[in-house]
Amino acid sequence: MAVDTAHPAGAVAGSGSPILPGALKDAFLTGLIALGLLGPLVGFETVVIDGALGLAYRPLVVAIMVGIIVAGRLILNLTVWSPNRPPKAQAGSSPVARGILAISPAFKPALLAFAVGFPFFATLMTGGLSESRYLIDLGILILTYVMLGWGLNIVVGLAGLLDLGYVAFYAVGAYTYALLATSAPVNDFFAAILGETFWANWAFWFCLPAAGAFAGLWGMILGFPVLRLRGDYLAIVTLAFGEIIRLVLINWVDFTGGGAGIASIPRATFFGIPFTAGEDGFAALFGLEFSPMHRLIFLYFVILALALITAFTTVRLRRLPVGRAWEALREDEIACRSLGLNTTNVKLSAFATGAMFGGFAGCFFAVRAGFVSPESFTFDISAMILAIVVLGGMGSQIGVAVAAAVMMGGMEMLRNLGFLKQIFGDGFDPSLYRMLLFGFAMVAIMIWKPRGLVSSRDPTIYLKEKKAVSGSLVKEGHG
Amino acid sequence: MSDNALPIHGWDKDPILTVEHLFMRFGGLVAVNDLSFRVGRGDITALIGPNGAGKTTVFNCITGFYKPSEGRLILGHGRAPTAEELDAVTLNGERGLSSSDAGVYLLERMPDYKVSGEAKVARTFQNIRLFSGMTVLENLMVAQHNALMTASGYSLKGLLGLPSWTTAQKDATERAKYWLDKVGLTERADDPAGDLPYGAQRRLEIARAMCSGPILLCLDEPAAGLNPRESLELNELLRAIRAEHGTSILLIEHDMSVVMEISDHVVVLDYGTKISDGTPEAVKHDPRVVAAYLGVDEDAVEAVEAVLDEATGAQS
């Protein structure tokens, strides 16, 4: 749009002739539009005057913003959009693209090495175990979303089935662990056979597979009613499914504890050794000085391992008939059926596999937080995971990982916008603009990379030479 | 064409597919109206007719994409089923019966994916349906899904990378390579299917259907959009498929050079009913076919009707 309107202004002037008048006119018009929009939107501020709500006006802020827009437009018109500028050669790839291509083989190992070494870097950077708590917490959060993104990627990216209720499986996994680990009968059962503390110490390791299996089962239960649905209808029903799970969790108070949730869930242990300051605790047994950070770092490696298992399994499954069937389903369902593929099974296996990884992540969430409540499983989480998958490039592993890091890390970084106070004054609270900036970033990515960060598809088998399939040929699926 | 002298044709003696009183109604519209014909084992059978005659509807009924309103579609594996076998299957409500030497399937009772997977009827589409974002080789691997799925132990053996799975995958690749050679696409095996030129996409679709190991191959306008040279190559390919694999072929086609050149048997449809059935030679000279295809002058209508009346009068 912007380019379209900018060119006629300069084109009249012709090549080599002064373009300033056109650019000025364009900038002036843009300024008028910006004034019209920002005048009421930014200009008015609600204030409390003597206990009553009133309006104050902030002409200075509006003036600054409009000034930035006019100046920016003028500079762009004179430089980037200028008709006198030699046209960019389209044939050759840009140096940036070539650079990315050159480092891409090393990218994955480097990323993996960074993920493995992250707790050490964080400790070194912040100068102490306790001080690195914020960074490691952030790392755990990002890795949880990487894992959720990879799980949803199976359903949305590979099988092409739009699932807006993925958080349901996250919730199923979390509640599976929360309920089993705090269950008195289960505890009594193990206490009678294997000792008092057995269940509290081992609950996570027993519940992890159970949570995955149970979430997978729920994935199939969701899969059955939506088999015949496509596109928008599929999206709405999966969205409803996510909400149903949450509402059941809220309202089935006897079983789930309702809105209050379930607290004091047993913490993770180092394969049966608790992270306590006591004699048989982790620190004492390994001859370390006790620190609550040990548990957190251990959790970091647990989620890293879970995420890597997810990635490894997905990569393997893609090269198996079931994975190819998922992708074939995304490409053309009717052709699949004409080749003898039972599309019911293909869809259910995709839903179940995706849900299973969601369940693992949910189980991990419960053990990390030590507390679950329906508040943690709102639609926002589904939307966030879906955004990660779409931004990363549907079907791409590395793209999803980068997108998760950018989205979750970026959201956190945007909390630290203190320097903006120097521009807009002390009354300015930058964290309020977090979502706005975030939205701008997403729009920008969708403009320049409409198919996600990694849009090309990796073939699963080849005869002579592995060639990436261009994103423009790959279909998004019908759901 | 000495068949003309004999009233009993090959397709009557050993049909691989028998269509009996097929009806397909969409609301008030009768797309296929009491259609019966046979497809001979090892024959190339052409289903022709003007646009909108109901050919593709018949195809969709045979391959399970539509459930016929009425009628029976009998597919015989190995040999034509005997009347007793047929009665047994029809009455007990099963989809099919198979013994060591023969099998009989009632296609109208089977869902689409079983028609392909169990009854071994493969099809192609009028508007090509390839997995365009997957490579040529991947397309052929998907076609062997059912066999590979079993070989991969429903993904369990495959995830562990057991040797039995690796061997099965290798065999499947060999089979894909064989068909790539057949259709001349070996060079492009690693290119996305959506990047191929139109004629190559048509050939790839046939290769993909053949990779599923069918005994009956249904082709919906395989020569549409091909130039004369490509049509000729297609004829060669279809002949080779029949000669080397014993696959029977049923095809819908408008290109008469293909139809008359390669088919053993032609069935002509118009407005959902069969108007002619016989060898290409016989069909070509059938006045009803000529009338349906070329149309007739106002004056000629009566003349043709007179001929038709005579013909039907002579029969009855």
UniProtKB/TrEMBL annotation, chain A:
The keyword Transcription regulation does not apply. Keywords: Cell membrane, Membrane, Transmembrane, Transmembrane helix. InterPro entries: ABC_transp_permease, LivHM_N, LivM-like. This is Branched-chain amino acid ABC transporter permease. Residues 23-117 form the High-affinity branched-chain amino acid transport system permease LivHM N-terminal domain. GO terms for molecular function: branched-chain amino acid transmembrane transporter activity. It comes from the Bacteria. The keyword Translocase does not apply. It is found in: Cell membrane. Its main location: membrane. GO terms for cellular component: plasma membrane. It is a multi-pass membrane protein. It comes from Ancylobacter defluvii. The chain crosses the membrane at residues 27-48, 60-80, 100-122, 134-161, 167-190, 202-227, 233-253, 297-317, 348-371, 383-411, 431-448.
From TrEMBL, chain B:
It comes from Ancylobacter defluvii. InterPro entries: AAA+_ATPase (IPR003593), ABC_AA/LPS_Transport (IPR051120), ABC_transporter-like_ATP-bd (IPR003439), BCA_ABC_TP_C (IPR032823), P-loop_NTPase (IPR027417). Keywords: Amino-acid transport, ATP-binding, Nucleotide-binding, Transport. Belongs to the ABC transporter superfamily. This is ABC transporter ATP-binding protein. One of its GO terms (biological process) is L-alanine transport. PROSITE patterns: ABC_TRANSPORTER_2. Signal peptide: none annotated. PANTHER family: CONSERVED COMPONENT OF ABC TRANSPORTER FOR NATURAL AMINO ACIDS-RELATED (PTHR45772), HIGH-AFFINITY BRANCHED-CHAIN AMINO ACID TRANSPORT ATP-BINDING PROTEIN LIVG (PTHR45772:SF11). Residues 17-296 form the ABC transporter domain. GO terms for molecular function: ATP binding; ATP hydrolysis activity; L-isoleucine transmembrane transporter activity; L-phenylalanine transmembrane transporter activity; L-valine transmembrane transporter activity. GO terms for cellular component: plasma membrane. The keyword Amino-acid biosynthesis does not apply.
